[in-house]
Amino acid sequence: MNRLKPARRLLWVVLTLIPAALVAAAAYVWLLDRGLAAQDAEARKRLDFYARSLDSLLDKYARLPQLLTLETTLADALASPADPARIAAANRYLAAFSERAQVTTAYLIATDGTTLAASNWQDRQSFVGRRFDYRPYFREAMQDRPGRMYAFGTTSLAPGYYLSAPLKRDGRIAGVVVVKVSLAQYEVTLPGGADPLLVADDVGVVFLSAIPAWRYHTLSPLSVAARDRLARTRQYPQQALQPLSASQALDGSAERPQRLRIAGPEHGREYMVRTAGVGPLGWHLLLLSNTVEVRRAALSQAAALGFGLAFVTALWLFAQQRRRRIEERRESLKAQRAAHAALEARIAEQTEHLVITNEALTERIHELERTEALLRRARDNAVQTAKLAVLGQMAAGVTHELNQPLAALTTLSDNAARLLELNETAEARENLGLISQLAQRMGRIVGQLKTFARKEPARLEPVRLADALANALMLVEPRRRELNARIDVDVGNETVRADALQLEQVLVNLLRNGLDAMEGQAAPALAVDAGSGDGTVRLRIRDHGAGVAPEALARLFEPFYTTKPVGKGLGLGLAISHTIVQSFSGSLAAANAPDGGAIFTLTLPTP
User: Fold this and answer.
1) What digits encode the pLDDT tens for the residues 474-487?
2) Strand partners, 5
3) Which of 224, 439, 493, 539 is in the most buried spot, having the most CB atoms within 10 Å?
4) What structural domains and CATH numbers belong to the chain?
5) Nearest Cα to 167, choosing from 266, 84, 93?
6) Residue 514, Cβ neighbours under 10 Å: how many?
7) 356 burial class (0-12, 13-18, 19+ CB within 10 angstroms)?
8) Is residue 149 within a helix (H) or strand (E), and if so which, with residue range?
């Protein structure tokens, strides 16, 4: 039997782990699918925003060439290309136009492809006299169509977006006007980092990217025809045009998300790629969403679920084993009682005196058992009553602590509704994020209530005083606005050793009490400052109210003691704050300022 026990324990371990592992694996797949779907939905929104921004930018410059075709100075230059005065006038006009329109270059090309005038006519790399008849935008304009092209300048070697239009005289095309625009400012706005955004042309060459190393790479290997076209038009001279990924190809017009793995020490990551068409030239906008965080979150949640299931299964197996042992004990007790009854019968047959004595003894035993049961129930009731008293006290305290974040939630939700009415989705999303954070913080406060009731130690760690104070100020902001109060803060960059959430609770209590003390004043002002020394940080919160009565100072931190009117407070805020600060190995003291008002000094140890 002893040899079978280790094997039985191993079987229990296997029975515990296998279901937990299967459930965790299924949960990981489900959570990952949900996370990727949410990430893809967010990517579509962002992609639509950047696509509309780029379309708007391109539309802004689309009519500039047509405006130039209306200028008689350019038409005169085409009519008399050998007249230096007219060419000079055209050069000056194009230079002034480029400056006003904020374009890189504007120039005038004759029908043979030679540049007659340009805004950069005074530069060393002037376009004047150079031929551009090989450029598609020139040929399209000569075919009486607007020309568009993004390419490197063959003279300046600077990339830009070229727009052209035919200039007609007497119904015939006399020349072509061209405007070159830099998209560098738009490229600066593109997101990089974990979720970069790229712009590729119709053949898949990436020409705009916040990551410089990815520029002038391709979404997939270029065909021979595409390379011949790029070489003939000199669109990207001296660029290798290698694929972003050697093992995967991207379709810039795909409607469904694609996965892409980009190798390298810095960007060796897996991305979920969303694409959108943009512009009149068949460009593609690609948003690469890093899936590492989504996978990590799904894995951690699935692991937590698996461990939880394993723990519950282990508890169930333990309960079953304990039930069997109890049954065995009952059977053993039943056998013992039968033997005892047989013994009593034999003793009764031998002597009546022993029977009477045994019956009296049995009655006394039963009485003692009943007495013991009554004592046990009385003890349990007393313990339960004490627990309910503590929980009742903390329930009153949590109402006090949750009023501030509930007020902040109301304000943020009202602002979000107003922002949605104004179609300010970005700001509304930010408010909704703050609402989520406050709801999570309220959940943590309730969790801290359980910890306080069980007298568990705080989770002490380094906390920036400025961060904790910022969160507390956000919670008391409705009350500050209600009183039209000013709060002056000067805490520097001090760091203390505390629990961040409990420290925020203390700060909210002190700030709220300070504001309440100045209710009714015309210009209430609250001052918060901090200083360090001797391994501690001292935070002072000073109001300009009526101060604290001398007889109240000694009892200020007692539970249920309050100086506020009936209905304004339960007297638990400072008592809870004092208990929290003591758990940090710190202290909380109150005093009256010489010139009026109260000063609460919070002393906390440094990390």
Assistant:
1) 888 878 998 999 99
2) none
3) 539
4) 64-182 (3.30.450.20), 185-290 (3.30.450.20), 373-455 (no CATH), 457-605 (3.30.565.10)
5) 93
6) 26
7) exposed
8) strand 147-152
- Write the single-letter amino acid at 112: D
Q: Phi and psi (nearest 5°) for 154?
A: -70, -20
Q: What contacts 578, CB < 8 A, 6 or more positions away?
A: 557, 588
Task: For residues 241 and 563, give the distance between their C-alpha atoms in angstroms, rounded to a whole number.
Answer: 76
Q: Which residues contact 532 (CB under 8 A, 6 or more apart)?
A: 494, 538, 606
Q: What number of other Cβ atoms are within 10 A of residue 421's Cβ? A: 9
Detail the DSSP E strand segments found in 330-464: 461-464
CA distance 206 to 133: 25
Measure the CA–CA gap between 60 and 56, rounded to whole angstroms.
Answer: 6
Query: How many CB atoms sit inside 10 A of residue 596's CB?
Result: 11
- Tracing tokens 């313990």 back to the chain, one arrives at 383
Whole-number Å distance between alpha carbons of 472 and 506: 9
Q: Is 602 exposed, middle or buried (0-12, 13-18, 19+ CB in 10 A)?
A: buried
DSSP 3-state of 68: helix
Inform me whether the pLDDT recorded for 500 exceeds 70.
yes
Q: What digits encode the pLDDT tens for the residues 518-560?
A: 998 989 999 999 999 899 999 999 999 888 888 888 778 777 7
User: What is the pTM (predicted TM-score) of this model?
Assistant: 0.48
Torsion of CA 501, 506, 508, 510, to 10 degrees: -170
Note the residue count of the chain. Answer: 607
Q: Which residues of 314-325 are buried (b: 16+ CB within 10 A; e: fewer)?
A: beeeeeeeeeee
Gap between the Cα atoms of 591 and 18, Å rounded: 62
DSSP string for residues in 229-241: HHHHHTSSTT---
* Distance from C-alpha of 547 to C-alpha of 180, rounded to nearest angstrom: 71
Alpha helices in 80-209 (DSSP H): 84-101, 136-142, 184-189
Cβ neighbourhood burial of 211 (10 Å; 0-12, 13-18, 19+)? middle
Tokens 């937990």, located at residue: 20
Residues sharing a CB contact under 8 Å with residue 593, sequence separation 6 or more, in sequence order: 542, 547, 599
Dist CA 247 CA 261 (whole Å)? 8
Task: Give the start-end residues of each E strand in 182-268.
Answer: 197-200, 206-209, 258-262
Residue 469: band (very low, low, confident or very high) from pLDDT cuts 50, 70, 90: very high
